[in-house]
């Protein structure tokens, strides 16, 4: 552990010292006013020097891993540390305590570059999420999973829409209509972090238990439903007229039909005919990017195409597929996702909440609604279906994990101008807290059940002794 | 093969059609004047929309793979097709025959983004080159390898300096002094494509033969020597005074000492202590980027630090190392190097040569000197050392392969303003031709040797018959 920290420390501190050299080296960009990072990429900005760019991105990557490693040591999923690293680098922490370093590291002109890498990270991440979706998961307790999955979206969504009534006036971005805002807040509260969930289940040895299978199937159903809701929200936010929205939906349906009817069989044949090992990864990369670009052009978002390409990528127990997944996954996690986390972090301004005490109140309210909606919704659906209370409690806690998926949705909402930076910050906090709460909540459930079992055991023992 | 082409074709043609949609979508950037791409990143430019950027890069990646796949089918190394794809997309071909598409695909504002990805590609590529260097290769015919390796640099270098006398007046960039220019041209002619060479040897089943071992060791020695020459050239080009140049050399030596004396043992201990599987790739990525940044700050170039990190990365037959290499390699080749090839291609303007007939003459002269220097130099050193003529001819032909390594050097020279775009274009042509010539030349040597063997056999047979 010590060497770990030393090695990582060197990787961060050494360049930080050298940054002082850079202050002179790139004074033009560095001494400008503190930039307010914005998602839009249409601004006229000075192009920064390449070493400065490489430096920013290296720090972003290094800190994400440092955060991940520390959280891993604390028994939490790495991803929480990776997400937190982005916030640490942003205006919330680094920008507040050491604004000079923040200005050197992230001049406004760095943002479009971080954004580009973040978009690649999102596309690869969503492809991997799609790749995890497997039809065979839906067998077994299919009906329970279907109902719980839908309930775990429907109830948080309904609560989200209700919440939107309250927060529309104080927290919506200026020109956004209520329907789009409500749809977006509903979708944002009803999402579940499918891949983080899978990792938590694997780490706790729950993946191949009945609870694990039920959870992962529920989460898959919930995620697909939430994505559909988001697609509608995006269409409404972008389309200026109902006709335009209809056109987008029609194009989306046509795109999905072509992907399933033409691209999937073509890919399957390509893989069966023996696509060479070295050509497989290129085909995957080009495929997911083209697919993502098409959905972007249709008017929904990059992530849908990349996700769909992952869902329909043929998986017949092929060694080649496993290798593609492993290689894509490592590189995505290690290199492409950290810029996304930084991008989210640079847009998260916790200082915005400090300005008004009521905002912290709103933040707590949103968190409470989000958690209650997920845990309560799942339990309300699972208990009548005969799922034992212990299992449905665990299911609810697990589905409450929002992780990266939530950040994906939030960054889209911010980019489209549906939510303000203040609401974005609140929802990022909700995502972090609800993800970080998953492991401790599961442990407290374990402890409680163990205590009850012990008590029940003692009672049974006493009963046996009495009857003896 | 057919499905291959169809799939790739779709990946390129489909977005090209959709580009027409983009014309309207991003008219602001697209309808500007034809940009003359430049290496400098200090210009004020309009930031392009993210989908347009993703689109450009997707086309770059797709075409590189298409080129690689086609060349692979023709029995050539993929890398030639990947290099050629960059030129096809540049002003030499696409820009000449379909300027509208070229303008949509590569507005001037895309260049800094391509440059950033290209820099990452270079850093990862050089790390992998360093990782291929293995001390045990230097055993065996060490003396022959050492002498041939040095000769294969010294003779092309001397010829390059002589050539510089001729071309300095017509082809050097305006403010560059003759010593820097001569040093650079010498280094550019004496480089060998170590990784492409390793791939060619593997593909032809020569890697584990005595010729293969001799070649790869020679190439390793030649490459390290050529890098040192290049480092001196860069230092001279950047440093305004001898004192500054000395400072850079001193810092470089100190850096190398710290890397070998401190970082290498630390890494070895980290790996022995059981750095977790998922933390290894992050450590590699952060390490190579930090190391590259430090050499950049010292005043040489990014590539040296990344290369050195690869050289000293501990390799004790670890499975983990192999996995890191495989994963880094696939992703680098498939995703990070294509932008580098595009960057080179966008700066290659074959049209510049067509304007003056004498320039084609210069280009042919440079090619002749480059090829003669390598093949002649190696043969001149190897033959007196007792290497059979057949083997030394093969050695010379193999060492003449310049591949990506040449492009790396050229892009640095262009970036530092040592060479003009016209000379850059000529040297890119030299790199392409000498790399593409390797496989056919080897085959013609094989055929000639087989013919001679047959003749010798017949003569021997006739002699036997006569004496019988």
Strands, helices and their partners?
The structure is a homodimer of 468-residue chains.
Chain A: H1 2-25, H2 27-30, E1 44-46, H3 50-73, H4 78-89, H5 94-97, H6 99-105, H7 111-132, H8 142-171, H9 178-190, H10 194-203, H11 210-238, H12 242-272, H13 277-298, H14 302-312, H15 319-346, H16 351-354, H17 357-382, H18 389-399, H19 403-415, H20 421-467
Helix pairs in contact in A: 1-3, 3-4, 3-15, 4-15, 7-13, 7-14, 7-15, 8-9, 8-11, 8-17, 9-11, 9-19, 10-11, 11-12, 11-18, 12-13, 13-14, 13-15, 17-18, 17-20, 18-20, 19-20
Poorly predicted sequence stretches spanning 5 or more consecutive residues of chain A = 1-45
CATH first level of the largest domain in chain A: Mainly Alpha
User: What best-fitting shape of chain A do the alpha-carbon axes yield?
Assistant: globular
Structural class of chain A: mainly alpha
Overall pLDDT metric of chain A:
80
For the CA atoms, what is the radius of gyration of chain A?
23 Å
Major pleated sheet of chain A: none
Number of domains of chain A: 2
Give the H and E element order of chain A.
Answer: HHEHHHHHHHHHHHHHHHHHH
Largest interface: A-B, 71 and 71 residues
Give the terminus-to-terminus CA distance of chain A: 55 Å
Percent of residues in β-strands of chain A = under 5%
Secondary-structure arrangement, i.e. CATH architecture of the largest domain in chain A: Up-down Bundle
CATH fold-type name of the largest domain in chain A: Na+/H+ antiporter like fold
DSSP E strands of chain A, number: 1
Domain Cation/H+ exchanger transmembrane (chains A, B): 62-442
Protein name (chains A, B): Cation:proton antiporter
Transmembrane segments (chains A, B): 51-71, 83-101, 113-133, 145-168, 180-202, 214-237, 249-267, 279-311, 331-350, 362-389, 409-442
Membrane topology (chains A, B): Multi-pass membrane protein
């Amino acid at each position: 552990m010590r060497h770990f920290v030393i090695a990582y420390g060197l990787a961060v501190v050494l360049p930080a010292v050298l940054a002082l050299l850079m202050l002179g080296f790139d004074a033009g960009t560095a001494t400008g006013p503190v930039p307010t990072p914005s998602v839009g990429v249409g601004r006229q900005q000075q192009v920064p020097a390449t070493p400065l760019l490489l430096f920013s991105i290296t720090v972003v990557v290094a800190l994400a891993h440092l955060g991940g490693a520390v959280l891993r040591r604390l028994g939490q999923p790495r991803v929480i540390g990776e997400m937190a690293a982005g916030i640490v680098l942003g205006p919330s922490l680094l920008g507040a305590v050491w604004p000079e370093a923040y200005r050197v590291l992230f001049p406004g002109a760095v943002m479009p570059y971080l954004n580009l890498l973040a978009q690649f990270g999102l596309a690869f991440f969503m492809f991997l999420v799609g790749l995890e979706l497997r039809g065979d998961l839906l067998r077994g307790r299919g009906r329970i999973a279907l109902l719980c999955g839908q309930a775990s979206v429907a109830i948080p969504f309904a609560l989200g829409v209700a919440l939107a009534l309250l927060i529309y006036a104080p927290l919506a971005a200026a020109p956004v209509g209520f329907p789009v805002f409500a749809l977006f807040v509903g979708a944002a509260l009803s999402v579940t972090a499918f891949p983080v969930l899978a990792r938590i289940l694997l780490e706790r040895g729950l993946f191949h238990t009945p609870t694990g299978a039920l959870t992962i199937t529920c989460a898959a159903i919930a995620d697909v439903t939430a994505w559909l809701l988001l697609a509608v929200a995006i269409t409404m936010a972008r389309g200026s007229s109902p006709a335009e929205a209809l056109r987008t939906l029609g194009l989306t349906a046509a795109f999905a039909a072509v992907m399933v009817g033409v691209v999937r069989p073509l890919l399957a044949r390509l893989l069966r005919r023996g696509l060479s090992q070295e050509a497989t990864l290129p085909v995957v990369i080009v495929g997911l990017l083209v697919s993502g670009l098409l959905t972007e052009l249709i008017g929904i978002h990059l992530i849908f195409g990349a996700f769909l390409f992952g869902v329909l990528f043929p998986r017949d127990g092929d060694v080649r597929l496993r290798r593609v997944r492993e290689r894509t996954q490592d590189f995505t996690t290690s290199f492409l996702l950290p810029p996304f986390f930084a991008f989210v972090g640079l847009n998260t301004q916790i200082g915005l909440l400090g300005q008004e005490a009521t905002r912290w109140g709103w933040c707590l309210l949103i968190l409470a609604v989000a958690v209650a909606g997920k845990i309560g919704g799942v339990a309300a659906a699972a208990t009548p279906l005969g799922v034992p209370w212990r299992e449905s409690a665990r299911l609810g806690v697990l589905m409450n994990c929002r992780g990266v998926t939530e950040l994906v949705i939030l960054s889209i909402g911010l980019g489209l101008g549906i939510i303000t930076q203040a609401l974005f910050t609140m929802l990022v906090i909700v995502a972090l807290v609800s993800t970080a709460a998953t492991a401790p909540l599961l442990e407290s459930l374990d402890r409680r059940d163990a205590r009850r079992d012990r008590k029940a055991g003692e009672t049974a023992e006493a009963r046996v002794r009495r009857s003896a």
